Amino acid sequence: MKKQPNQSRKMKHGLVFLALIFLVTACTSFQSKKEIGANAHLTKKEKVVALLTSIETGDPTPIGYINPDKYIQHNLKVADGLEGFGAVMKQLPEGSAKATVVRAFQDGDYVVSHTEYNFFGPKIGFDVFRFENGKIVEHWDNLQEIVLETASGRSQIDGPTEVIHLDKANDNKVLVKGFVEDVLKGKNPGKITEYVSTEDFRQHNPAVGDGLGALGNALKEMADAGMPMTYTENHMILGEGNFVLSVSEGQFLGNHVAFYDLFRIEGGRIVEHWDTIEAIPPRAEWKNDNGKF
């Protein structure tokens, strides 16, 4: 039977991608030497942006930024290693993938990106990559569908992108850690004005308006409805300059979820907030054994 053109293209695309992965796996030392040349100047942040952008462009070069012998995957819908990454790419309808990195920052061996995707549908995503010896060895992410009409009128990803005040990074991480413990985890919620600006608090959560009053009202409404938003454990605080990401676990609308909260800090107070909330699938549905966090 003669194959249809679309089927042939998809098969060819999948075979080419898997072949590229095989070459990456087989030629680790060669790639390392090559990277010393053309790509040695790239920062960790630039490598991450290139890798995510390649989802759309199909450029095979950034695959070489991943360690082929050690790639620990925390997206529970994807299997470990380059093979898992390749399998997901193969499932995408040809030409459908879009990836626009809006902001990215680095904290030591970790790089955080905030990206607008079309990846099996329009989504906003946070990705966290960990590097060892210049190669990506671990990946976490959190995705949420795009909402066009939001309470604040802001999108889920717009706003400032420039990383500034690099000397304030540690202070800002301490501030966010305190906010998570005292306010989000409920240890001392009355201290909220010590963390969040009472004059300028811009909100990108699609269901919540700007300002502290709108945040308080939203939390109260959920609690009154018997569906409180509960943060139970914080797993990661990463930041550079005025941007800090908090990765937490908890309950939302009766589901076990991951909370990724990005904060922008000015003058020692949180002035802007972006987030994604993603349900954690049942253990039987996991494609790897690494856990969400």
UniProtKB/TrEMBL annotation:
Protein name in the entry: Polyketide cyclase
Sorted UniProt keywords: Signal
Signal peptide: 1-26
Signal listed as a keyword: yes
PROSITE patterns, per the entry: PROKAR_LIPOPROTEIN (PS51257)
Lineage: Bacteria, Pseudomonadati, Thermodesulfobacteriota, Desulfobacteria, Desulfobacterales
